[in-house]
Amino acid sequence: MAQGLLTTSVGSFPKPAYLLEARNRFAKKQITTEELAELEKQATREWIDFQEELGIDILVDGEMYRGDMATYFAEKLAGFEISGLVRSYGNRYYRKPVAVAPIQWREPISVEMFKYAQGLTQKPVKGMLTGPYTMMDWSFNEYYADREALAMALAEAIHQEAVELEQAGALYIQIDEPAVSTRPEELELAIKAMAVVTNGLKAHTLTHICYGDFEKIYPRMLDIPVDQIDLELANSNYDLLELFKQNTFTKAIGLGVVDVHRHTMETLEEVKEGIRRTLEVIPAERIYVDPDCGLKTRTVEEAKEKMRIVAEATRQVRAELAR
Amino acid sequence: MHTTAVGNYPKIGNRRDEGQQTGAPVAFNPNATSITTATATEIATLPTNLRRAIALFDEGKLTAEQLAEVSSNVTAVVIKEQEEAGLDLVTDGHIRWADDQTYLANGIEGFTVSGLIRYFDSNTYYRQPVASGKLTRKGSILLKDYQYAVSVASKPVKVSCDGPYTLARLSQDEFYGGDIKAMALDLAAILNAEAKELLDAGCPLVQFDEPSILRNKGDWELFKEVMTRLTEGLDQTKLALYTYFGDATGLHGYFDLPFAIFGLDLTPTYGKANWGLINEFPQHKTLAAGIVDARNTKLESAEQVAELIARLPENINRETLYINPNSGLEFLPRERAQEKLANMVKGAKGVQ
To answer: What is the CATH number assigned to the segment(s) A6-67+112-322?
Structure first.
């Protein structure tokens, strides 16, 4: 039996309709925190069950409790306030964290939900964090002298949360850095900050990077001190494999094989071909197959179908390898 | 010394009474048939609630005319906010603009508008224009908006928009075969006609924003040609060229370009090197000093603004000098944008 080609997912799944409604009602103060938390747990349980049924190897809790990936952590760290509404694009607005005082870890943020999700399955569940570089880039900074100072303060705080997750039993800790590809000239800062986060961890560490102009940061990004880098391959037609042929991909890869921004489904054959092409440049034991990015932008049905394709295509390629 | 804004202004606010602010000169007609499906509360809060109005428009519950009316009302509100902050020269805040590129592209023959793409290194996105044919003028884009702004403003109104080079750089090219100069020159002709129309209508200042040249300094020679075409036959004394998110060092003879006013980013994050550059700023030209950071909520105090103005070198003519944020204010929550402008004005007055 071939080793490797484990299946997983990047983090988020879509929230079911009842949870979206509950979040609305919670915002209008029509239900309590406890009532909302109950429904978040219910939705988490449903997604864990779904991943179990598909035979996914490394599970995620689906992030049923998160609004925004930066604000979720900022709200619970000392030193942050949350801004008024700012525009992202079109008619889309969001609230940004604002660093107004020294950033400090105060209490576990994600540990309780991790424990809850891990308690539902024998399979490993990933601990999920937002990285210091991305937290910095997505925040206003009213306190620190510059971007580096804020990023490094965040690194200390996020390291503490990672340690807590590890102590709670997390075997995989994912530290998302989607912003890393925005400013290639700051990659060194992202690396330095990540070194603080992952320092001394025994868990398998990984980072997810997206929206990339990867040509500008590859192969330098291989210096990010994590065991695995999770990348979107499907939405760029596996162009990254050409870069990997020029400079060997030396880490484990999270191989995104379905495009999360498209409603249409990839065919089984397309996904299998993508995995096979990757196997030409990276050995199976270093490949983790997953969607390109979090699936929260898809409908529940689309997300499930994309996961089914990930699981089935991987199963078939594994069988080919075993022959 | 004058104070001004650069361009866009936050479209929505965060106050509890958002949407119920008074002072909007155009009454919204709540009896219009197409909004019968909107609730009474929604209609009551619509006159200046642009976010809700756009959502209703997207759902087909408001007509384009009704949406335009709400946009007009919000334009009046943001002009009033700039005036309350004390600015000498205001903009319409680009309230009608989905983003700084799309609005122009929609008014130009040959452009279609495609998917979302990141705006420089910010966390904001715009829909990328695609040149799928030769870019030509199909009619005036900015004049009507200028005239509306003037009708509700008590201070002079300037018009600002992307310059032709930046608009070309931020667009996709499916027609010019990668010839950025040809594309920018066609856009320069269009924007030249826009500016002419505005100046003829009495607009005191037309401002072109060219941040993209700072990231493509190798294009300097062709950029000069594009600027010559852009300003052909226009009164230079009423033209401004702004750049931001970087410095203009290394662009030899930058201040010889045919503009009277040069806006430079002087914030520590993006424009440190511009402080050296302005030591050679020519006496006969006007500096627009971008000393307030439009991309961070950290509030500059009036004292800090005054200090920064005092630090400008002696060759800078204090009488003609403009003080403004480094770029458009739309990166900020509305209230912080106004606070920044108010402190900026206080700081500038303290110096005078």
So the answer is: 3.20.20.210
